[in-house]
Design goal:
This protein is an alpha+beta fold. The chain is about 25% helix and about 40% strand.
Length: about 240
């Protein structure tokens, strides 16, 4: 389920830091029930040693300028939130409607409108555009026995393999059953793609247009909760072309 919040400010502007994923993540946690927030934050949906929060969100969408290390948006701006957890989306929408006002990066904002998206027609082969970077990585051990994080790019074979394994783990964790026994998920660039690096945590992801092939149930789950890693931090959201 996917919804869009149309956010405004009395001042006509919203100022945020360059890397504002964490304040938005915090806003979401603070606008659902304490029980659900505690479950998602502390436990999530578990698969072996992995835990999945099963939601993702877009960047703020709107006109902006960058000044002195800050982004200044003209309001209104849009924020899209997506999750296969209907309770998460409905609690978020209902609580924000009741409150009327929110705090984003210490500034008072309010929601003008909430739009519920229609469910897309997901097929086994679709063309997508990323709304936030897709992250695929492995933790490697160097020759001096230190851990090193390696981020794959979309032309490396491991990129598709890691996305496929990650998505199958999410499916089993969320639905409590084995994922469909189909061919592996694959992703191929449609033209050029861009690299995005987030400085605070040195997270590297990729933006662009891609062809996504795989089981339609797995792709639908990826649409709802995000493709790749770190979805709850605002990565892996895509839309259909």
């Amino acid at each position: 389920m996917r919804i869009t919040f149309k956010i405004s400010s009395d001042k006509g502007k919203i100022e945020v830091p360059l890397d504002y994923n964490h304040p938005i993540q915090s806003l979401l946690y603070h606008n659902i029930s304490p029980e659900l927030a505690s479950f998602l934050h502390d436990k999530g949906f578990s698969y072996e040693r992995r835990s999945f929060k099963m939601f993702t969100f877009s960047r703020l969408i709107g006109r902006y300028d960058i000044n002195d290390g800050r982004i200044i948006f003209e309001t209104p701006v849009k924020l899209i939130v997506s999750s296969p957890i209907d309770q998460f989306v409905s609690e978020l929408a209902n609580m924000i409607l009741r409150k009327g006002e929110l705090s984003l990066c210490g500034k008072k904002v309010y929601v003008e409108e909430i739009i519920v998206h229609q469910e897309p027609d997901i097929k086994s082969t679709i063309k997508i555009r990323t709304m936030t970077p897709i992250v695929a990585y492995s933790t490697l051990i160097t020759t001096d026995k230190k851990k090193k994080t390696y981020y794959y790019n979309p032309i490396e074979r491991e990129f598709s393999e890691i996305l496929d394994k990650n998505l199958r783990k999410k499916y089993e964790a969320f639905y409590g059953k084995n994922p469909p026994k189909t061919s592996k998920l694959s992703i191929k660039p449609l033209g050029r793609f861009g690299e995005k690096i987030y400085r605070d945590n040195v997270i590297k992801g990729y933006m662009g247009r891609f062809i996504l092939e795989g089981d339609d149930k797995l792709i639908k789950l990826a649409y709802d909760c995000g493709l790749g890693s770190k979805n709850f931090q605002g990565f892996g959201m895509f839309d259909l072309l």
